[in-house]
Specification:
Elements (H helix, E strand, L loop, with lengths): L9 H24 L4 H22 L8 H27 L2 H8 L2 H12 L6 H18 L1
């Protein structure tokens, strides 16, 4: 029996999982920032990632790909994330989550600019308008 039900694309389901987990992470980070330093939170965050990494390694039968380029970018991604987390935790320690989270949530703008300049990706009019609206929203949320 054929079904005509619409199903969201797989990437959208992954994105929803990301939104839920990151939303919870930011909320928990704010609570933690009231009793731990940014350095302590980053260390604990990293320790919290270990069970996830171990489960993924087990699922891959403890074998990592040996592609140098992929490994290099993966490690660089981890280093930049760790440094960014220190800034995030430090900001949460002195400012409310309702201000810090939306402002730091603008990180995709840097990604878009870099993709535009370095990868030659193009933005359509709607995407450019979305970027402008995101910037306006941050100003409004930060007041």
């Amino acid at each position: 029996m054929p079904t005509d039900r619409w199903r969201p694309p797989t990437w959208a389901l992954y994105a929803e999982l990301c939104i839920i987990c990151w939303g919870l992470w930011a909320f928990l980070a704010k609570i933690g920032s009231e009793s731990a330093t940014a350095f302590q939170l980053q260390i604990l965050f990293t320790l919290g990632m270990l069970p996830v990494a171990l489960c993924m390694l087990a699922g891959m039968r403890w074998k990592l790909d040996r592609d140098f380029k992929g490994a290099s970018y993966g490690i660089l991604s981890g280093v930049t994330t760790g440094l960014g987390m220190l800034g995030y935790y430090g900001a949460l320690h002195v400012q409310s989550a309702s201000v810090v989270s939306p402002v730091t949530g603008l990180f995709p703008l840097l990604t878009v600019v870099l993709a535009f300049i370095l990868l030659r990706e193009r933005l359509n009019r709607v995407q450019r308008c979305g970027i402008a609206l995101a910037l306006i929203a941050i100003v409004i949320l930060s007041i």
